[in-house]
Every structure is written in structure tokens, then in C-alpha cells.
Amino acid sequence: MTCTTVPTMSLHCIWSSAEHLIKSFNLLKTSDEVFLQLFSTCPFVSSVCKPVCVFNNTEYLPGVKVPVNICKDCSCGSTLDPKTGLHVIECSPVTCNTTCSQGFSYVRSPGQCCGTCVQQHCIYTGPNNTVYTIEVGKSFNPSNEKCAYSYYCIKVNAAFTLVANKSTCPAFNPEDCVDGTVTTTPDGCCKTCEIQNCRVQRNNTYLLADSCTSVHPVEITSCSGFCDTGS
Fold this sequence. Notes:
Elements: H1 18-24, H2 32-41, E1 53-55, E2 58-60, E3 72-80, E4 87-93, E5 104-107, E6 116-119, E7 122-125, E8 131-134, E9 139-140, E10 149-156, E11 159-166, E12 183-184, E13 191-192, E14 199-205, E15 208-209, E16 212-213, E17 218-224
Antiparallel strand pairs: 1-2, 3-4, 5-6, 7-8, 9-10, 10-11, 12-13, 14-17, 15-16
């Protein structure tokens, strides 16, 4: 075999074995002895390389992405390695954006370099685009709807939902209250008080009927306080 039979420009790198060199030249598989004979006959072929990068025995042209590592952004560069004659693979670390919106948390993804933002709470957007987060199982009373609605956070499967509940006040009758105990509920929306027990009041009065008046005063009873129908 002579040098003229070797297509030298198909070479891509420094070879790790005779078989690798032969495959690079697209020759039929032969013995190391034949390879050594070829190499000694044509020593110049060892310095001829394709303008490529090589990773895992795969060639990559300059500018092409090289899958070196999921957390590295690599591509075949334009710089030559003086030892191998190949183009150098240039890498930079992948920067993961770990900043998430309110109500979301950063969670690593198995098998991926970067994670994702996963919702963890319900989200309420109020006036002026003010954002509030509500934990699952908790209620929230927005200031602009304080005495109108409250919102309860639930999670169904992977969906977070705010359930609106219309606010209502219990019945209030100031006549049923102990004097001086009227106040408002903690949310400031409803009046409440200490309810006085039902008691009987007795009053003596003269009965009037048409133009007649009773000779003696008559005792009249009435109920005051919180009384049921059986009192």
C-alpha cells in the first residue's frame, strides 16, 4: 500500500488505535501490522485533521452545540488545540433562574440541570395589582372587600382555587344586650354584645277601657332580654 491510496483529508483526530485510524480513512478492517506499515510509509497523515471538534467519537463542526453536560452550554469553537490539531470545545456553565413569582417555589427537576417554579399557594390580586398569597386551608379577607367577601384557598389535584364566601352578620338586636357590652367583631364588620338572659318585668298600672279607669292599679308582667317563645 502506498501513500497515494490514503485519502488523508478524511482524518479527524489523533487516533487511539489502529482500527480507529482505519475507520477514519474508510478502509476495510485490517491488522495492526498493516496499519503500522501504512503509518511508517505515510508519516505525514498523522498531522492532518478535519476542522472539527470531537466528543465521544462524534465530530462537530465549529458553532455546533456539543452535549458535554446538562449543566454546561458547550459548542465547537474556532480555536485549535496545538496538541491534537482539533478544534477546542468551549463551555460555559448554565445559569438557572431560581427566582419565582409570589405563591411559587423553585423545585429541582430530576434529570435536568434547572428546576421549575411550582405553585404552592393560592393567589389573590387586589387593587393596584397588589398580590396576596393564601395557604391551602386558610381564609383571606381583602381590605377592599372586607365586609363583603372572604376567600378560602383549596387545592384540587394540582389546581389552586380561591372560593369566595359572601360575608353575613348574625342577627343583632340591641334590646337583647347587656348595657355597655355592644362592640364589633374582630374584622370590624358586625355588631355583637353580651346577651342578657330572659327576665320577667312587673309593672303596676291602671287599666283604661273607653272612658273608664280601674279603681286599683293592676300588675302587668312582660319579658325582657333574650327570650324564646316558651318564656
